[in-house]
Q: What sequence folds into this?
């Protein structure tokens, strides 16, 4: 599957790809091939959507406009998958969590891609790169850089990334900063694919623990995160979860009137 084959659903005002995890990897791999063959020159920008993102996009115009400039938005949250089924028409077949995507790409047999990891602390991003390199024979690490840099004056960092020539640039600066940074600098970045990934590096290193599989399948991984990081996430989930549901229903009503 390539990007032009993707069908999208409007979930909470965001044009979200109706793809499986496997198809998402196919799209990323095809983009890398097209750049290698010089049939494409611009980076493909991949953002994600979850309850927090939907809520933020509907309350922050600048963030919404940044999201609309992505080439593909995938369903990072199970709630997005569930809410897409309320809309009628084509729905999202399954969740494609970014924490899984970071493993799905090197986990694909016969697919060897190079990566540059940007974001997080120096220790976490370096350790994440080392762990993925050891775990996957086809994960090629072309470089890492921490996320504590001058976001407005980063020509040297961009030059470092371009010199490393990765197939995929992962940007883990957190919402909405990572989306703003990517959109601001994508025209200078000479990479086939850019994927925002939030705090995914911390899950690879084990600093954050994922929910049990039954909670992931039930769509309540957010509850596990809340219980393990209550000070950080309590207010976010209390406000954004109900708001995201409202936003999905609001946009559904607008489409049917």
A:
């Amino acid at each position: 599957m390539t990007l032009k084959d993707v069908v999208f659903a409007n979930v909470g005002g965001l044009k979200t790809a109706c793809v499986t995890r496997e198809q998402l990897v196919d799209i990323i791999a095809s983009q890398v091939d097209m750049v290698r063959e010089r049939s494409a020159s611009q980076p493909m920008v991949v953002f994600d959507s979850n309850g927090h993102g939907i809520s933020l996009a509907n309350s922050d115009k600048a963030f919404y406009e940044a999201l609309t400039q992505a080439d593909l938005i995938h369903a990072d949250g199970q709630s997005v998958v569930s809410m897409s089924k309320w809309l009628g028409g084509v729905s999202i077949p399954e969740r494609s969590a970014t924490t899984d995507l970071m493993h799905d790409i090197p986990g694909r047999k016969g697919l060897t891609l190079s990566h540059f990891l940007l974001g997080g602390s120096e220790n976490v991003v370096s350790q994440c790169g080392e762990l993925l390199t050891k775990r996957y024979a086809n994960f090629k690490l072309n470089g890492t850089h921490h996320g504590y840099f001058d976001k407005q004056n980063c020509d040297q960092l961009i030059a470092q990334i371009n010199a490393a020539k990765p197939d995929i640039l992962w940007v883990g600066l957190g919402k909405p900063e990572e989306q703003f940074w990517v959109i601001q600098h994508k025209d200078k970045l000479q990479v086939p694919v850019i994927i925002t990934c939030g705090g995914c590096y911390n899950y690879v290193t084990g600093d954050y623990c994922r929910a049990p599989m039954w909670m992931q399948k039930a769509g309540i991984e957010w509850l596990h995160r809340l219980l393990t990081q209550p000070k950080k996430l309590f207010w976010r989930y209390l406000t954004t979860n109900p708001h995201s549901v409202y936003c999905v229903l609001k946009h559904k009503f607008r489409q049917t009137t």
